[in-house]
C-alpha cells in the first residue's frame, strides 16, 4: 500500500511537482511531463521516453545528459496521452528529429504512435523504438509482442549515447533497435501492489509462492512456483535468459532490478550466484547495476536483464550519464561546454482554445449533451471499483480509475464548453480531448478519439437528429477501430461498440425516434458485452494472460455498455434541451 498521499486523484500531479522541485537544477516541467533544463543542441536527435507513473526512476528520473531529453508522464500505471507525448517531444525537438522509446504496452503504443504521426505531419522527423525485453510475455518468434520492463534502461542509454554522438535519426533508431534486440529480461513477484487510494492490491501472491513472468503494472504473473531461495532464483533467472544467448555473445551488461519493496541488500544476496553462473557460462560482466531502475509501485519483486554487448553497445553502456536517478562517470550538466538553460521553459501555456461559432439549433442540444456526459460520469463513479476488479483478472486493474479520471475531466470540460457557448459537436470534441488527457491508458485514448470523432461528425450547425447521431456514432466506431486496430472478436470494447453502431443505424433506419432506437441499441451492446466472457483476448494488456481471461467479460466492453445505457435515460427526457 501507499502511505503518503493527499487527494489520490492528484497523486501524479503532486509527485511531478515535487520531483521537479527537488531536481530543478537538472529538469524542468513541461506540459505532459519533464524535460532537461538545457536546450537540445540544434543538430542533436532528441530522445523522448515515457510511460505511466509508479515506475520511478522510470521515467522522469532518467532525464538528463547520457539519458533522455524528455519524459512523458502518465498517471500511475497509465500511458501518457498522445497530447502529452507530443507536448514533451515539442519541448525538446530539434530539426534533427525525435526518437520515441518506451516499453511495449498497448496504451503506450496507441498514444506514442499518434504523437509520432502528429510530429511527422508537422515536419518534425520522428521514429520509434519500442522496448520488448520481457521473455515471459511472448515467445522468441514473437519478439515484437513482448512487453518492456527494466531493459528500458539499456535501450534509452544506447539511444541517448548515439544521439549525443551527433548521429542521424536513422542511425540512432538503428542502434537503439539493436540494443533492444540484444536485451532480455525476466521478472518475478512475491506480492502485489496497491495503487494510491485503492483499497485492494491489484493481485496477490499466496504465501510461500512466487509469481513468474511479471510485468511492471501489477499484471498477474504467468506462472507460479514455490518461493525459492536467492540461489534458486538466480538459477531460474540465468537459465531462462541464457536460453536466448545469441551466437558469439561473450560480454553482457547486467541489471538486477528491484520492483519496489525488495531491498537492494536482498538483491545483492542473489547477485553473487547470478555473477557466478554468468561467468561460469563464459560471459564477462560489464558494469553491472543492482538496485531500482524500473519499479512497479511498491510491488515486492525483482527482475534480471541481460544485454549481449557488442563493441558499440558496450561503449554506450559505459558512457557517462547525469540524471536525477542515474549518474555514472564524468557527466554533469555541462553548461560550460555550451549547453544553454532553456529559459522559456514550459511558459507557452496554450491560449484558451477558441470556441467556434455554433447555430442556435446546435446550442439548444448542448444541455442534453452535457447531461449525457454527466450520466456517464455518474455511472462510472458507481462502477469504478467493480470495473477495476474486472480488469485485474487479466489486465492491470486500472480500468475503473482510468475511466473515472477520464469521465470526470470530460464532464468538467463539457460544462466549461457549454458555458462558453459551444455547439454540440465542439462540446463533445473538447470533452474527448479532456478524457484522453486525464484518463491515460488504452481505453482513455480510445474514448478520447471516439468522443472527438462523434463531435466532429455532428458539427455545430444542424440539430443532432436521429440520423445524424447514428452517422456520428459510426464515425466514432471508425475512429476506434482505425486507431486501436481491434476487430470484432478480439475481446475489446469494439465487441460492444460495433453491435451498438449497427443496431442504432438499423433502428433509426426503421424510423424510430432517437431515444427508442438508442435504448434498443444499448440493450444489444449490453448483451454483446456480456458475451465477451466467452472470448479470448488477442490484443491489449490481457493478451499474455489468455486463459485467465476466459469466463470474464472484457472490462472496456462492459463499461461502454453501462455508459450507453446511462445515456438512454437522458435521451428519454422530454423537451427540447
Ligand atoms: P490499459 O489496457 O491501458 O490498462 P484500460 O484498463 O483503461 O487500459 O482499458 C482496458 C480496455 O481497453 C480493455 O478491456 C479493452 O476493452 C480496451 N482495449 C484494449 N486494447 C484495445 C484496442 N486495441 N482496441 C479497442 N479496445 C481496446
Ligand atoms: Mg487496464
Largest sheet geometry: 6 strands, mixed
Helicity range of the residues? 40-55%
Bound ligands, each once:
adenosine-5'-diphosphate, magnesium ion
Ranges where pLDDT stays below 50 over 5 or more residues in a row are 345-352
**How big a fraction of the residues is strand?**
5-15%
Category from helices, strands and their pairing: alpha/beta
CATH homologous superfamily identity of the largest domain = Dihydroxyacetone kinase, domain 1
Task: Count the E strands.
Answer: 14
Kindly, what is the distance between the CA atoms of the first and last residues, rounded to a whole number of angstroms? 46 Å
DSSP helical segment count: 18
Radius of gyration: 24 Å
Strand numbers in spatial order across the main sheet: 1-2-4-3-5-6
CATH hierarchy class name of the largest domain: Alpha Beta
Shape: globular
How many structural domains? 2
CATH topology of the largest domain: Rossmann fold
Instruction: Please tell me the overall pLDDT.
Output: 92
State the CATH architecture of the largest domain. Answer: 3-Layer(aba) Sandwich
Amino acid at each position: 500500500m501507499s502511505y503518503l498521499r493527499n487527494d489520490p486523484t492528484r497523486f501524479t500531479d503532486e509527485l511531478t511537482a515535487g520531483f521537479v522541485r527537488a531536481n530543478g537544477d537538472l529538469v524542468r516541467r513541461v506540459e505532459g511531463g519533464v524535460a532537461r533544463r538545457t536546450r537540445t543542441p540544434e543538430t542533436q536527435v532528441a530522445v523522448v521516453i515515457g510511460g505511466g507513473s509508479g515506475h520511478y526512476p522510470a521515467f522522469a528520473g532518467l532525464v538528463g545528459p547520457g539519458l533522455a531529453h524528455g519524459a512523458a508522464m502518465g498517471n500511475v500505471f497509465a500511458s501518457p496521452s498522445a497530447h502529452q507525448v507530443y507536448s514533451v517531444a515539442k519541448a525538446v525537438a530539434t530539426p534533427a528529429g525525435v526518437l520515441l522509446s518506451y516499453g511495449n504496452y498497448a496504451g503506450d503504443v496507441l498514444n506514442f504512435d499518434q504523437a509520432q504521426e502528429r510530429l511527422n505531419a508537422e515536419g518534425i522527423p520522428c521514429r520509434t523504438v519500442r522496448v520488448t525485453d520481457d521473455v515471459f510475455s511472448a515467445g522468441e518468434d514473437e519478439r515484437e509482442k513482448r512487453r518492456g520492463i527494466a531493459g528500458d534502461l539499456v535501450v534509452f542509454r544506447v539511444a541517448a549515447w548515439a544521439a549525443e554522438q551527433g548521429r542521424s535519426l536513422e542511425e540512432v533508431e538503428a542502434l537503439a533497435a539493436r540494443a533492444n534486440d540484444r536485451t532480455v529480461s525476466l521478472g518475478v513477484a512475491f506480492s502485489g501492489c496497491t495503487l494510491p487510494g485503492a483499497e485492494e492490491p491489484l493481485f496477490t501472491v499466496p504465501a510461500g509462492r512466487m509469481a513468474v513472468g511479471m510485468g511492471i503494472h501489477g499484471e498477474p504473473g504467468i506462472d507460479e512456483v514455490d518461493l525459492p531461495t536467492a540461489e534458486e532464483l538466480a538459477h531460474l533467472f540465468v537459465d531462462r535468459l541464457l536460453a536466448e544467448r545469441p551466437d558469439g555473445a561473450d560480454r553482457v551488461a547486467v541489471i538486477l532490478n528491484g520492483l519496489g519493496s525488495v531491498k537492494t541488500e536482498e538483491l545483492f544476496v542473489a547477485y553473487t550466484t547470478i555473477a557466478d553462473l554468468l561467468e561460469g557460462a563464459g560471459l564477462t560482466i560489464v558494469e553491472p547495476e543492482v538496485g531500482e531502475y524500473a519499479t512497479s509501485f511498491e510491488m515486492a519483486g525483482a527482475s534480471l536483464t541481460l544485454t549481449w554487448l557488442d563493441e558499440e553497445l558496450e561503449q554506450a553502456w559505459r558512457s557517462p550519464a547525469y540524471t536525477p536517478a542515474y549518474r555514472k562517470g564524468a557527466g554533469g550538466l555541462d553548461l560550460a561546454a555550451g549547453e544553454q538553460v532553456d529559459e522559456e521553459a514550459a511558459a507557452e501555456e496554450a491560449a484558451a482554445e477558441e470556441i467556434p461559432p455554433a447555430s442556435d439549433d446546435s446550442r439548444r442540444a448542448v444541455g442534453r449533451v452535457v447531461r449525457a456526459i454527466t450520466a456517464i460520469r455518474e455511472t462510472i463513479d458507481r462502477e469504478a471499483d467493480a470495473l477495476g476488479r474486472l480488469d485485474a483478472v487479466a489486465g492491470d486493474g486500472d480500468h475503473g480509475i482510468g475511466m473515472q479520471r477520464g469521465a470526470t475531466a470530460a464532464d468538467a470540460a463539457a460544462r466549461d464548453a457549454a458555458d462558453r457557448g459551444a455547439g454540440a459537436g465542439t462540446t463533445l470534441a473538447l470533452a474527448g480531448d479532456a478524457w484522453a488527457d486525464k484518463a491515460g491508458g488504452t481505453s482513455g485514448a480510445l474514448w478520447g478519439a471516439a468522443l472527438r470523432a462523434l463531435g466532429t461528425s455532428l458539427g455545430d450547425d444542424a440539430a443532432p437528429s436521429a440520423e445524424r447521431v447514428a452517422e456520428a456514432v459510426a464515425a466514432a466506431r471508425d475512429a476506434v477501430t482505425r486507431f486501436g486496430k481491434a476487430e470484432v472478436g478480439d475481446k475489446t470494447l469494439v465487441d460492444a461498440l460495433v453491435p451498438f453502431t449497427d443496431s442504432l443505424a438499423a433502428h433509426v433506419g426503421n424510423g424510430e425516434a432517437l431515444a427508442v432506437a438508442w435504448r434498443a441499441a444499448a440493450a444489444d451492446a449490453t448483451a454483446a458485452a456480456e458475451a465477451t466472457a466467452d472470448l479470448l483476448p488477442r490484443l491489449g494488456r490481457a493478451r499474455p494472460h489468455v486463459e485467465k481471461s476466459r469466463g470474464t467479460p472484457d472490462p472496456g466492453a462492459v463499461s461502454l455498455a453501462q455508459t450507453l445505457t446511462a445515456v438512454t435515460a437522458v435521451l428519454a427526457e422530454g423537451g427540447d434541451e
